[in-house]
Amino acid sequence: MKWWAGLAGAAVLGMAVYGAIGLTQGDPRSPFPFRQLRLVSENMAPTLRPGMRVMARRKPASELRRGDVAVFFVGDNFWVQRVVGLPGDRVEMRGGLVILNGTPVPQADRGKIEIDGRTSTIRSEQLPGATAAHRVLDEGATPGDELSAVVVPPGRLFLLGDNRDNSMDSRFPATAATMGGGMVAFDDVYGTIAPEDVSD
User: What is the pLDDT of residues 124-164, one digit of tens each?
Assistant: First the structure.
């Protein structure tokens, strides 16, 4: 068990199937240097799954890099998604493949997995500048597989869920109608989750 797993006052990080809607205890914007969170849905599968405990650590958005798992605020809730685009990056998607600054991000098949009765392909993906590859899920063709090129503006991040076909993230506008995430402002970033800060 991780050293922080027994900390009192854990927050609950909710990620409804298509989004990352969360519930927290207390004020999520308070200046605590870390927050213990418990995952409740599949937005970041297969990397993060329901029931996992994670430790979110404060980190300025300007220090995040592609491949980092970012924790950020939407209203009074925490969301979690992976950093794909930094300010100035040009991001598009074709057939579910991320095209970053005109170059396809490499993917490699890693087998199949079944989640909630749905069969998905696991793929590894290596973002430029990331320290390691991460895994993503692909259920097949969905509307989110196609995205016209967008440029990430200053002070914003482009984020994606690893469960690409079940994540409302920066591909979708942040409106009440879409429940998308939109591009995330630096001011709304709490910090990041490191691989060593994840526990079953």
Answer: 999 999 989 999 999 888 888 999 999 999 999 999 999 99
Range of the domain at 122: 90-158
Asked if residue 145 belongs to a domain, the reply is yes
Using CA of residue 189, residue 7, residue 51, residue 22, what is the dihedral sign? negative
C-alpha dihedral (125, 151, 80, 193), degrees to nearest 10:
60
What would the DSSP string read from start to end of 8-50?
A: SS-EEE---TTS---B-SS-TTS--SEEEEEE-SSTTTTTS-T
Look at residue 119 and tell me whether its pLDDT is greater than 90: no
Tally DSSP H helices, then E strands, for the chain. Answer: 0, 16
3-state secondary structure of 64: coil
**48 closest CA partner among 20, 7, 10, 74:** 20
**What whole-number distance in Å separates Cα of residue 145 and Cα of residue 188?**
26
Q: pLDDT-derived band of residue 26, with 50, 70 and 90 as boundaries?
A: low
Number of separate domains in the chain: 2
